[in-house]
Amino acid sequence: MVNLIGLIMGVIALGFGVRAVIWPYKVAKISERWDAIGSKRRRSEIEPKEWKVKLTRLWGAVLIGIGVLLLLMSTNYV
């Protein structure tokens, strides 16, 4: 039997993880824009640091691993 909640959570984790691994700069830039809400700087001036882009890619890979694990657990393969 398939665990529906685990399946849904696995797909969501995979979706966010793949996006963060493929486009880490865009994801980090969105995060920086959220952090700059209320700042006097313009949105076009906000750029993520290199370490933030690398960390975003790393977290994306972790999310992919978690998503695969959740999918395997929800289908009783693990």
Q: Strand tally, please? A: 0
Total discrete domains: 1
Tally the helices: 3
Q: What integer value in Å does the Rg equal?
A: 16 Å
What is the overall pLDDT average? 92
Low-confidence stretches: none
N-to-C SSE string, H for helix and E for strand = HHH
Q: Structural class given helices, strands, pairing?
A: mainly alpha
Question: What do these coordinates show?
Answer:
By secondary structure, the chain is an all-alpha fold. The chain contains 3 helices and no strands. α1 packs across α2 (24-35) and α2 packs across α3 (50-74). The chain is elongated and about 55 Å long. The two termini are 13 Å apart. The mean pLDDT is 92.
In short:
By secondary structure, this protein is mainly α.
Looking at this protein, list some descriptive labels:
mainly alpha; about 80 residues; 3 helices
List the helices and strands and how they pair.
Blueprint: H1 4-22, H2 24-35, H3 50-74
Helix pairs in contact: 1-2, 1-3, 2-3
